[in-house]
Amino acid sequence: RFNSKLNSDISLLFSKISHKKRADFNEFITSISKPHLKNLDWWVQGPASRNTYSSPLFHYYCVLFLIHHLIQEKRFLFTGVIVNSLSFKLIVEELLSNSNINNCKVYSKYSFKDILKQIIKKRFLLFYLLFKKCFQLLVVRIISSNNIPDKPLVLIDTFLMPGYIDNDRWYGILWDKLSKEQKLETFFVPTLILTPFKDIIFLYRRAQLSVRNYIFKENYLTLKDVIFAFGHKKRIRKITIQRISLLGYEFSDLIEEELNNNSDINAVIESILTYRFIDRFNQEGLKVRLAIDWFEGQVLDKAWNMGFKNYFPKTKRFGYRPIVSIPFYLSTYPIPIERDAHVIPDVMALQGKGTVFMVKEFLSNLDTIVIPSFKYQYVWEFSENKLSQSKYVVLITLPNKSIGYTIFVINRLLNVCNAIPIKSDTTKFLIKPHPAQSLNKINKIKSNLPELPNYISLTEEKSFAKLLYLTNILITEASSTCLEAMACGIPVIMMENEEGLTYDPIPSRVSEHLFRKVRSQDDLMQALKYFINSTPENLKQQQLDSAMVREDYFEPYSQDGVDRFLDIVNK
Predict the structure, then answer these.
(1) How far is CA 334 from CA 30, 45, 326, 344, 502, in A?
(2) Half-sphere exposure (Cβ direction) of 354: Cα atoms closer than 13 Å
(3) What is the per-residue DSSP string for 375-400?
């Protein structure tokens, strides 16, 4: 099953096979995408997105090779396989039958009752999303206005969510570093995310009163655009997937199944509306000289870039990529078919020279520029503030996962602390929830935990940078915070996924003096002991290595860097 649990040995093999199949999977997506090159509805769907967080296609692709490998190696000793796709169930049954494995049954996760519940739930979700989007249009029309200067603009793709209006989670110090003239032409175009219905009006009002310039898409969209976006489901049914096989097994039905059962319909709707906004913006006779996309290769990015290519063909398109590419996060790696379809930027703006070769892995002639690390500029100004501390501080940043997984991580930490054992008078553990976790979710986590010892506490501080000043070691799952901490000379213990793929953010060029990757509870304990008992020589080496991380992955601020990002050529 997608996002299911594998035992540790199998997950290691699955990771190895999956990494080997990345390029082949890109070719697979290229093959099925060619007939739909100019079809927006295709590019905002899961299969074409290659977004491995939300689309299960890469997972199924690699699982087929995993099962085949286990059979070939005579290691397939299972009596049951559980799937959550009816199409994939047929594929696995055929593979087992052809391999003369008769004592293994393939089970579907869902009963007819479960499927019926899902259909009803999705229908209600569509109605809710339709109502919410119409409400957004109404709110923006009432509280906002279209006072746009009659000059070529710089439009920047961004997001709105509670707590991040004045404190920019995406572009850091960029706005503050713009000149008065640059601010007059620069406008952020936000997409509302992770916002409860009751907070929508408040959030738009806060953004409207912000010192930054905002252009709300909803000011230009009409009810006709909303109806068109929600007509996607009917249009997608008309898409015919060419017959394509993998290891001799037909995969087209599996692709069609995902098209008709997309689990992230909100992203699809928002992407189509973004495309229509760009069309409406063009119809208003407005000018755009540069369109900057917060780029992760997701469906919203594809719609943004296709829209500007189609309606503003002379406008330059930059992709802002402030974090390193993670090997299993495939959508962050552009591929040739995406350039042919105009769904990726013309130029990728990267925050460090060390990331250039990474983003070009599957598209070697991709145009790139290196720009300042606006989001992480603090790593260049970082200074340790631990001399006055009476305790050694370990910071744990939690992933944005289920409550159950979060509790598992904390319980593992408790077990390790008891085993070492940790001395409460010398060591302190701070647990930082993920920024996307709601207060309700955090309260549920707290209520399901045992009483924490006095040396472990949850912090309400939202700023990761502020917490780093007090930190001696960072413990996290696969997270961009790993590289930030190491750039500040703080060693990292990265917890790998024991039961599936690890979305590893640590580049291969980073020195192992700065990190340990752990899978088991014992691994975590040994890593903690190693860093807590670091020798003066090790600490000195960590500082030297952290300087290299800053140099490679965090370009320092410069006015020339701002000009490169805004495509300003000084003659």
Answers:
(1) 12, 16, 13, 7, 21
(2) 18
(3) GGTHHHH-----TT-SSEEEEEEPPS
Asked if 427 and 455 count as a contact pair (C-beta separation under 8 A), the reply is yes
Phi-psi region of 489 (alpha: psi -120 to 50; beta: other; left: phi over 0): left
Residue 485 · residue 506 · CB < 8 Å: no
The span from the CA of 453 to the CA of 451, in Å, is 7
Query: Measured at the alpha carbon of residue 33, what is the angle toward residues 28 and 39, in degrees to the nearest 5?
Result: 165
| Nearby residues of 459 by Cβ (< 8 Å), 6 or more positions away | 430, 431, 432, 467
DSSP 37: T
Residue 56 CB: number of other CB atoms within 10 A?
22
Residue bearing tokens 């992955």? 553
CA 160 from centroid of its chain's CA atoms: 16
Q: Which two tokens stand for residue 474?
A: 């960072």
Q: How far is CA 138 from CA 221, 222, 242, in A?
A: 10, 10, 42
Phi, psi of 418 (to 5 degrees): -70, -30
Point out which residues pair with 245 in neighbouring strands.
Answer: 250
How far separated are the first and last CA of the chain, in Å rounded? 57
Q: Residue 504 — pLDDT band, cuts 50, 70, 90?
A: very high
Tracing tokens 């755009």 back to the chain, one arrives at: 288
Separation between Cα atoms, residue 316 and residue 518, nearest integer Å: 43
| Residue 83, strand partner residues | 108
pLDDT in tens, 392-424: 999 999 887 777 778 888 889 989 998 988 877
Length of the chain, in residues: 571
Task: Specify whether the CB–CB gap between 61 and 246 falls below 8 A.
Answer: yes
Sequence-ordered alpha helix ranges (H) in 211-367: 223-230, 232-236, 252-260, 265-283, 299-311, 336-340, 356-359
Alpha carbons 19 and 34: distance in angstroms, whole number: 24
For 190, the 3-state DSSP assignment is: strand
Going from the C-alpha of 468 to that of each of 264, 382, 395, 432, the distances in angstroms are 34, 9, 8, 11
**Hey, what are 541's tokens?**
């080496």
Q: Phi and psi for 274 in degrees, rounded to 5?
A: -65, -40
* Beta-carbon contacts of residue 180 (< 8 Å; ≥ 6 apart): none
Token pair for 497: 């996924």
Q: Which of these, 505, 470, 476, 504, lies nearest to 488 by C-alpha position? A: 470
Q: Mind giving me the DSSP string for 507-564?
A: -TTS-GGGEEEE-SHHHHHHHHHHHHT--HHHHHHHHHHHHHHHHHH-PPP-HHHHHH
**DSSP 8-class letter at 341:** T
- Give, to the nearest 10 degrees, the angle between helix 223-230 and helix 265-283: 140
pLDDT band at 387 (very low <50, low <70, confident <90, very high): very low
Q: What is the mean pLDDT of the chain?
A: 93
What is the per-residue pLDDT for 438? Answer: 66
